[in-house]
Amino acid sequence: MGKPLAVPGVKRASDLASPAAGLATDKALPVIPELRHLFPGQGLRRGSTVVIERSLGSLYLMYAALGEATQAGSWVGFVGMPWLGVMAAKEQGIVLDRMVMVPYPRDLWLEVVTTMIDGFDLVAFAPAAPVKPGEAARISARLRARESVLLVHCSEPGMWPGADLMLRTTQQTWFGLNHGRGRLQGCVIQAQSQGKGSASQPRQVTLHVPRDWRPPQAAEAQRPALRVVKDVA
Length: 233
What we know:
alpha/beta; two-stranded antiparallel sheet; single chain; 4 helices; 233 residues; 11 strands; globular; Rossmann fold; 9-stranded mixed β-sheet
């Protein structure tokens, strides 16, 4: 892939972001306080690839990881995600006016992803098949050159070789149901990260959906919680 073509007078979408969109001290894009512990630099490090293992609750985790940066002015492109929940993304903080979707890239996924990397701070991609090491390496080089961040939402960690950080959900607990009856009120998600270098030790946080919702205290709870547990071994 050659150097991206520079057009006089035309800026990248990310160039239009406010200075707050990138933290100059560690080249990190901001994330909500609840997720900062998952990231060694307290945010999404520019030039990095983050794999989010596809499982129950992982889409909420992805939305939450992207929301704060879009509020600070960054743009995000979604590739290969026809199931994307726009309202769920909005509820987790993503600014819809700074969001672009290409749901069916088909065989052109590589071109679409690299084009978005050239234009946006953030790109989220769901590969339909394992990505070849050479393709992943080329995209990683482009990410470093453009100082963008790639989030890969995939069913198996090995689908994207050489990722800098891995995120996964380990447990979900839904509140509001009572033996199949009632109305869902909210969800508590346990999320874990592990990666290279300073991120080699697992870190865990708690995420609430919706974000401003909190589960009832034990003494106040009138309905039992519906818990979905995923084995992390």
